[in-house]
Amino acid sequence: MTETINDLPQVMLEGAKAARAASRTMGTLSAEKRVEALEAIARHLEAAKDDILSENKKDLDAAEDNGLDAPMVDRLRLDDERLGGIIQGVRDVAALDDPVGDVLAEWERPNGLKMSRIRVPLGVIGVIYESRPNVTVDASVLCLKSGNAVMLRPGSDSFHTSRRLVECVRAGLKEAGLPEGAVFMVPTTDRAAVGHLLSGLEGNLDVIVPRGGRSLVERVSQEARVPVIGHLEGICHVYVDKGADLEKAKAIVVNAKLRRTGVCGAAETILIDKARADELVPEIAGALIDAGCEVRGDETAQARHDGIVPATEEDWSTEYLAPIVSMRVVDGVRGAIDHISHYATGHTESILTEDEDTAEAFLREVDSAIIIHNASTQFADGGEFGMGAEIGISTGRIHARGPVGCEQLTTFKYVVRGDGQTRP
Amino acid sequence: MTETINDLPQVMLEGAKAARAASRTMGTLSAEKRVEALEAIARHLEAAKDDILSENKKDLDAAEDNGLDAPMVDRLRLDDERLGGIIQGVRDVAALDDPVGDVLAEWERPNGLKMSRIRVPLGVIGVIYESRPNVTVDASVLCLKSGNAVMLRPGSDSFHTSRRLVECVRAGLKEAGLPEGAVFMVPTTDRAAVGHLLSGLEGNLDVIVPRGGRSLVERVSQEARVPVIGHLEGICHVYVDKGADLEKAKAIVVNAKLRRTGVCGAAETILIDKARADELVPEIAGALIDAGCEVRGDETAQARHDGIVPATEEDWSTEYLAPIVSMRVVDGVRGAIDHISHYATGHTESILTEDEDTAEAFLREVDSAIIIHNASTQFADGGEFGMGAEIGISTGRIHARGPVGCEQLTTFKYVVRGDGQTRP
């Protein structure tokens, strides 16, 4: 479905300017006012439930006509329960600590200047995402809670649903006496809109959060004239050390790979310590295969278990997002760190061992956003971190690493209080 | 001067790979080891003083032949005293608190997972800068202190001096048993090298810090495939409120504009409260003019003092970096905030008033990196903030705002400690 808008550049620019103006208001509100707006949004979503579901039906019908595959249709589908979950999510975000205005540091200089570093919103955030209606609401309320304005570009398959959801969000803002321009949704499925977002809209957009497939994120990273917070791929590793507890290790590896295979925190490569490979390879590979997973191993692994099929060099760099895993035998924790430093994408890696010294070396030396000892990589999630909700996971090195929640959607400014100081 | 290198792309890529490898070592050293390296660097600089000055002489002679203007030659010139200052700067940075490994936050989840956020180095930092030899050393030691590796591209007029300085830095690293590859200087003045840095060198460069003229910074912002930390312009404002103390205000305005006119924290526009314009305009403009400054005012200002020449719309967006200032009469603090939100570049703004409520409104609502009450904008400097040294000032909104010191050259990772948890 494409609705063409003749003056799209103008519409986008006006939306961005309104978002910029609204962001100035949102960022200087009291925390109570932001909560009031989120509660009004939850009420408007509740009141419009039937309407939202009927718009969702339009999208689902079109998806069927377009031959969308089953997992994508499932992501798109809303029902009473899922919509209830989305609305509860709004209230959960409302209940989070307000991050804006926090004093992050305070100190005084010898000349009497009183310095402080204060948390402030990022400004206007662009979110480009897949056809998942829940993201429309999650991203809106996370941005609003942290005092930002947001420009949304949902996947085209969810256009009707998202448009109706955004109407509820804007109605809630209006009811709270706040500028509706704080949440703008691109009013067309025309892909040209993405280009306008990437161009930065004359300085009215501060950061872009891309979510979705590698091709989208690569395009955004290549073309964006504004900073990007996001991740390309999550090639997550689990290293099973000779000091591992076997039963824990089997349970964690199976969970890390198979709990959900389509999430970015799913494990893609299992590294096995050579010193205990004779036992660990058959046990771990066997548990994975029994659970329905294809295991692609290097020669050393293949030699230790019949069900393992051969891995190629490409496997070490592949994010399967499917019940397939690669397995390699490495020379202890040093070998694991070397493999990870070569192939990891900076997302999440886990070590399984009862040896504290080995674990600490891994935690210290591996440089990904999240490093885990004796637990599943699938904990790589804002909710599991206690952040309440997330807009995505960042594998970039600057500003935000790991789950991007309210706090990561803020920046800071310095406030300096003097009594007449001039600089010598 | 251009030294052409035939295989420049290869040389750059090898330098970047060596820097990446070195960064892994630098980031996991003890704080003591980093201090040891910086002290060795200071000793090597001391031992090579005569040699450095004779390389500097080569650059100065070439600068004369090339007709460089006096301020640029002055920036380029080293003498015994300046070199002593640079070496003292190395020891000052060595004495700073080590930022790496700080535990920024710790908490436990209901499932028993122990979460922590740990400060880690950014990785490999590219610095592109003007022909100022001190930056070669400052940038190197700030990056090393914070556990990073650095790739330097100094202005071509300082090529010989910078090359000799970098030899000392690398000799210090070697003496401390650390990889020399942690500091790489582009071995040619060929401008093509800048393009290679901007392309990101196959993921071996994590961030670029551009310093210098607007054209360089704009090129970097447009072309860089890696994140950029820096600033385009510092159009800094001083707003003189009706509640200002006149004597303080005159002293601060003159200092903010004229202490040094070539720094990014110098004031470029003075805003005067309409409610007291009859007194403030002649007093403030008079003080500036007496001190040798040209004042370009709007009509309201011109009508109140003879020496003010007319300003055009362009003046409000001009960074003079010279003894010229624009002056506009605005309608109180709201008028000042409106002007600033339109014309400021996000660097530093100051309000002069004895009225606390007015000051607090300004400090809260103005959204630049540094907001000051009753003091000069020329305090916008890492040293004045107590950071010890800075690699530049950032006007971007993400990662680092304001002075970029050691701490701003770091990022963080999450370390999660479990005892067998799988995600339900």
| CATH class wording of the largest domain in chain A | Alpha Beta
Number of domains of chain A: 2
In the CATH hierarchy, what is the architecture of the largest domain in chain A at level 2? 3-Layer(aba) Sandwich
Total count of helical runs of at least 4 residues of chain A: 14
Instruction: Name the assembly state.
Output: homodimer
Helicity range of the residues of chain A? 40-55%
Topology of this protein?
2 copies of one chain form a homodimer.
Chain A: H1 8-27, H2 31-47, H3 49-65, H4 70-76, H5 80-95, E1 103-108, E2 114-121, E3 124-128, H6 133-145, E4 149-153, H7 159-175, E5 183-185, H8 192-198, E6 207-210, H9 214-223, E7 236-240, H10 246-258, E8 267-273, H11 277-290, E9 294-297, H12 299-302, E10 309-310, E11 324-330, H13 332-343, E12 348-352, H14 356-365, E13 370-375, E14 393-394, E15 402-403, E16 410-421
Parallel strand pairs in A: 3-4, 3-6, 4-5, 7-8, 7-12, 8-11, 9-10, 9-11, 12-13
Antiparallel strand pairs in A: 1-2, 2-16, 14-15
Function (chains A, B): Catalyzes the NADPH-dependent reduction of L-glutamate 5-phosphate into L-glutamate 5-semialdehyde and phosphate. The product spontaneously undergoes cyclization to form 1-pyrroline-5-carboxylate.
Catalytic activity (chains A, B): L-glutamate 5-semialdehyde + phosphate + NADP(+) = L-glutamyl 5-phosphate + NADPH + H(+)
Pfam families (chains A, B): Aldedh (PF00171)
